[in-house]
Amino acid sequence: MQLIETKESQKYLDLAKSLAEEFAQTAVERDAKGGTPKHERDRLRQSNLLKLIVPKEYGGLGQSWITVLQISREFAKVDSSIAHVFSYHHLGVVIPHIFGSAEQKQRYYSETIHNNWFWCNALNPLDKRATLTPENDYFRLNGIKSFCSGSQDSDILPIIAIHQKTGELNILVIPTQQQLQTLVQQEIYRIKGFVAVPNKSMRLVMQGVGTRFDKFYDRPWKPE
């Protein structure tokens, strides 16, 4: 993987800027409507940008995280949701490389390229409600995750679950396009706001995802 900007990486950045301009045309309307940006996700599939971080030896584009993050920023300028699922896709793609065996790394890189997979994310090791239980020659995955970012219209979902016998964290990679009746989607509400606290110079950020709620001070308050 190259770590400096090249003509090749600039080509992908220019492509991303072109896609961002396209996404911007419908971003406000889609945000108001909600749901999954199926058309935009398919445009990402067609662009080959989902192959950015996969090494060239497996058929990928062999780009660096610098390029991935630069492109994520371009998308975020016009559509934060697209940037969110795009960046999480690349996090998912490298999971077998970081945590798996050499065989798993080769298998999932190769199949990602061959099938043009769109990865999502349900890792979050702090949410320990998903469990893994041995049953004969198989494992039963059961429980809830507070978020599965980008799971709708995805192809592969990496998820962390707690092994019921050992108590260890286990990472699983499961297909999302098969008819898996045991996977049930639930709406998770997200809120985020900012508060000007009297006698405090910092801005208070308040955010919630599902039943989890956090608050913290992030930077000096700047009234509009």
Describe this structure in words.
This protein is about 35% helix and about 20% strand. The mean pLDDT is about 85. The chain has a 4-stranded mixed sheet with strand order 2-1-3-4. A 3-stranded antiparallel sheet has the order 5-6-7, with no helix packed on it. The chain has about 220 residues and is of the alpha+beta class. Helix 1 (about 5-25) packs parallel to helix 4 and helix 4 (about 65-80) runs antiparallel to helix 5.
Distance between the termini: 43 Å
Number of strands: 7
Shape: globular
Beta-strand proportion: 15-25%
Element string (H = helix, E = strand): HHHHHHHEEEEEEE
Sketch the major β-sheet: 4 strands, mixed
Gyration radius, rounded: 19 Å
Q: What structural class should be given to the helix and strand makeup? A: alpha+beta
Average residue-wise pLDDT: 87
Determine the fraction of residues in helical runs and give it as a percent range.
25-40%
Count, helices: 7
- In order across it, which strands form the biggest sheet? 2-1-3-4
Which ranges are low-confidence, i.e. pLDDT below 50, for 5 or more consecutive residues? none
List keywords for this structure.
224 residues, alpha+beta, 4-stranded mixed β-sheet, 3-stranded antiparallel β-sheet, 7 helices, 7 strands, globular
Short characterization:
The chain contains seven helices and seven strands; from the N terminus they run H-H-H-H-H-H-H-E-E-E-E-E-E-E. With 224 residues, it is of the alpha+beta class. The strands form two sheets. A four-stranded mixed β-sheet has the order 2-1-3-4. A three-stranded antiparallel β-sheet has the order 5-6-7, with no helix packed on it.
